[in-house]
Amino acid sequence: MIETKGPVHRPGDDEYDARRTGYNLALDHRPALVVSAADTADVIAAVRYAAEHGLAVAVRATGHGISVPTDGQLVIDTAALDEVTVDPAARTATVGAGVRWRQVIDAAAPHGLAPLSGSNPDVGAVGYTLGGGVGLLGRRHGFAADHVRRLEVVTADGRLLETGPGTEPDLFWALRGGKDNFGIVTAMEIDLVPCTVLYGGGLYYPAESAAAALHGWAEWSRTVPEELATAAQLIRYPDLDAVPEPIRGRYAVVLRVAWSGPAEQGEEWVRPLRAFGTPLLDTVRELPFTEAGTIHHEPPFAHPAYDRNTALREFTGATADAVLELAGPDADSPLIVELRLQGGAYSREPAVPNAVGGRDAGYLAFSTSMIGPVALDGLRTAHAALHERLRPWSTGGGFANFFGLDDADPAVVRTAYPEPVHRRLTELKAVYDPGNLFRLNFNIPPAG
């Protein structure tokens, strides 16, 4: 019998369904146990129990991270570990395993500071950071993982370790980029950066302006400074009341921007994007960082989805043509495609090296679809065709935080890392998790 302060949920219990569900409803998880950890001691007890009883371990905070079936195994729910502490003098935040980025953003804002959070403030801060972390301030400051000062982690043998540049440095290196393969991080200390306001939003161009908008964005994006994060999305919006009327039921190419410098300079940089026709909707404005999530306005609700991603060296006019051919307004495609500009500080090695891959990417190509209107096999075919078409511009890699249902194969996972980095990760996995207890993830198996 497992002894914890927090409740343990089994099939048939009242809270079992709520605690087992991930953000991606394409997987109907049926774990043997879900441990809702009340504190770090509960995490330790759950890991030790799993090891003693031959159960693999998955971790769930907000539900965004579980993309591999957990049937018959043990899930540790860390949602209750949700404390945030900000040190404004040191410009740091200490963040618990269950914290969402929105909590960190709100805690840092009164001090004129912001975290290197992602486009969706409802995502868990720890899981996002361990996978690298591509966000609105990243081209200026780097991956979120580049700004981690300290991690507390429960390893496969049930020990609580504090890791940092001078303490368990090998494990510290592996955790920052290796996701949840090396233990369960219960708390992290991260840098905050000065930022209170963004000049950002989206320009929503209609189908007739799609080619001009995407080609124009491709050319313009090669010229912008590091203070500017930007993405282009090709999407057919559903005809639902929740969608703003100007874009409801319509196809659009959305050009998104987030400028973290002076607003008047942001206006100058964004001006060329207004030359591609008359947008259906223009939400670009000066906004507090606490409203940064409105720029991408990603779905806050769980849904069944199929995702793929490819890291691109460049995004040329020919690349834009390829994307429009397979996901443009005339393609009758189920794909939602987003191209994110990388480069800038993403391409530079951090002061304290880590295992994050993708530093050679100029762009990230991400595709997603809702499962249901189109069957899964049809979505697989559509996504595979797009990413095969993008192969001439690919680095050969992908981003770990953007993997989807079909990416759990270790051969796919290794594409997220340069070969020497992946080899070292497998060697460290053999040290810290030789039995591969933490394998219900995008797994890095132990060497040998």
UniProtKB/TrEMBL annotation:
One Pfam family of this chain: BBE
Keywords: FAD, Flavoprotein, Oxidoreductase
Cofactor (UniProt): FAD
InterPro entries listed in its UniProt record: BBE, FAD-bd_PCMH, FAD-bd_PCMH-like_sf, FAD-bd_PCMH_sub1, FAD-bd_PCMH_sub2, FAD-linked_Oxidoreductase, Oxid_FAD_bind_N, Oxy_OxRdtase_FAD_BS
Signal peptide as annotated in the record: none
Cross-referenced PROSITE patterns: FAD_PCMH, OX2_COVAL_FAD
Keyword Metal-binding: no
UniProt keyword annotation of Methyltransferase present: no
Family: Belongs to the oxygen-dependent FAD-linked oxidoreductase family.
PANTHER family attached to this UniProt entry: BINDING OXIDOREDUCTASE, PUTATIVE (AFU_ORTHOLOGUE AFUA_1G17690)-RELATED, FAD-BINDING PCMH-TYPE DOMAIN-CONTAINING PROTEIN
Protein name: FAD-binding oxidoreductase
Organism: Kitasatospora purpeofusca
